[in-house]
Amino acid sequence: MFRNQYDTDVTTWSPAGRLFQVEYAMEAVKQGSAAIGLRSMTHVVLACVNKANSELSSHQKKIFKVDDHIGVAIAGLTADGRVLSKYMRSECINYSFTYDSPLPVGRLVVQLADKAQVCTQRSWKRPYGVGLLAAGLDESGAHLYYNCPSGNYFEYQAFAIGSRSQAAKTYLERRFETFVNASREDLIKDALIAIRETLQGERLKSSICTVAVVGGGEPFHILDPETIQHLIDAFEIVGDEDPPANEQGAAAAADAEEGATAEQGATAGEGGDGAADEGAAPMDI
Amino acid sequence: MTKQQANWSPYDNNGGSCVAIAGADYCVVAADTRMSTGYSILTRDYSKICQLADKCVMASSGFQADVKALQKVLASRHLIYQHQHNKQMSCPAMGQLLSNTLYYKRFFPYYSFNVLGGLDNEGKGCVFTYDAVGSYERVGYSSQGSGSTLIMPFLDNQLKSPSPLLLPAQDAVTPLSESEAVDLVKTVFASATERDIYTGDKVEIVIINADGIHRDFMDVRKD
Q1: Which residue of B has its CA nearest to A90?
Q2: Where does the protein principally reside (chain A) (predicted)?
Q3: What is the residue-averaged pLDDT of chain A?
Q4: Positions of chain A with pLDDT lower than 50, given as ranges
Q5: pLDDT confidence of residue B184
Q6: What does pTM read for this prediction?
Q7: Do A283 and A58 touch, CB atoms closer than 8 A?
Q8: Is there a contact between B79 and A93 if contact means CB atoms under 8 Å apart?
Q9: Quick one: residue A168, left, alpha or beta (phi over 0 = left, psi -120 to 50 = alpha)?
C-alpha cells in the first residue's frame, strides 16, 4: 500500500495519474467509526456508532445540526468534521440572512466539495480527512449526499461510511427499494439495523449510537437515548416476526438474518434487563 | 461661505412608541403598530416587536429599515450562539450583544431606539433600555420612541420607587401583578395616542413569563 515516491505532496501526480495524498485522506475516512444515512420521500435519517475511548470519557460528537433543515454525520478526523460543520452552519446563516429562505442542500454540498477541492491543489494545505453524510430537506424534497475528501460528492438513497461500513452497505443495498415510501419509524429501524450490522455481533445499545432525523415538518434533531433504546428493544425482542415494509426477496433474506440474531437477542434479553441502566447514554457535553 | 449641507439623508423616522415593564416573574413589552413617514401613514399594521430568544423580546422604534437590519443581525448571531453553546441566549447576554452590535456602527449608527425585555437567569423580569449607539442600562421600566416624552413621566409617577431623594435611587422591579402591568401599558398607550400623532392604530402587547410568550392586541385611536 506504500507508494512512496509520489505521495509526499498533494500537488504531485503519480505516473498512473493518481494523487496519493487524496487517496490517503480517503483512507482516514475508512478508519473512522461508522456512519450511515438513508432517506425516504419525506424524511432522512442519520445514524452513527459513537464509542468513547474509555468509560471515563465522553464520546465523540459525530452528528452535527447545520440548520433546521440540514444535518451532517461525519467519519474520519472528527476535528476536520467539526470545522467543516462550522463552515456549513455559517453558510446557511449567511444564505438565510440574504435570501430569507433556507439554503438548498444541493448548493451547500457543492460549496463544501469546492472547499475540499481547494485542499487538493495547494502545496501548503492537506486534504480534509473526513467524509460527510449530509442529510437535508429543501423545496425539491429529501436528500442525502456524501462528500469525499477528494472534493467529489454524490447523492444517495442510502449509504454507509467508516469502518465495517461494508456490512451496513450490504444490508442497505438489499433493502433500499423499500426506503422511498417507508414511514419515519421504519426508516429509523432500518438505520439501527444497519448500525448493528457494523458492530459485528456486539450488542447494540443507545449508549454507543446516535440517531438523528429530519423531515415531515420536523427540524433536524438528534433523538434522545431513551427513544432510541425503546426502538432497539422493540426490534431486538421482535425476533421471528417479519421486519416492516416487506418485499419478497428482502423478507426471505431478512428473515434468515432476524432468525440468527433472534437467538442472540433472546440470550442477551435476560442480560438486557439487568443492564437496562446501561442503556442510558453517558453524560453528553 | 456657508458649509454645504447634504441634500439627502440616509435616515428616515417611521415614528411610534415602545414600552417595557419588568415584574417579579414576568415582563411586558409593548409597541404601537403605526408606521409613518413625514405626516403620512405608511401602514397601520406593522410590528416593531421581535422575539430574539426564548425569553427575550425587543421593541424598537425609529427607522424601521435599520430596525429590520438590526433584528436580522441579532437573529443570526443568536443562531451561531445556539450552535456553539447548545442553548438559548439569556436576556442579559442578549442585552450585551445588542449594545456591542449598536456600538459597532458608532460612526454610521442604526437609527433604532430599543427596549429589550425578558426574564433573567433567575426568572425575574428584566428590561434594558438603549440609545442609538448602544449605551444601555438595566431598569425596571422604560419607553422609547416618539411618544416616550409623554409616556416616561407617567411611568415614573406610577412605578418609580417612593423616595427618589434617597440615594441610591433605584428602579425597583415593580410590585404590580401581571394584569395590573398590562392595564398600565394599555392606559399609557391610550394617552400617548391622544397627543402624539405618530402613535396610534393598534398596540401590540407581548407578555413573557415562565409559561412562555403570549401576544395580545389592543385597538386605539386611528386619527
Answers
A1: B80
A2: cytoplasm
A3: 84
A4: 238-285
A5: 97
A6: 0.83
A7: yes
A8: yes
A9: alpha
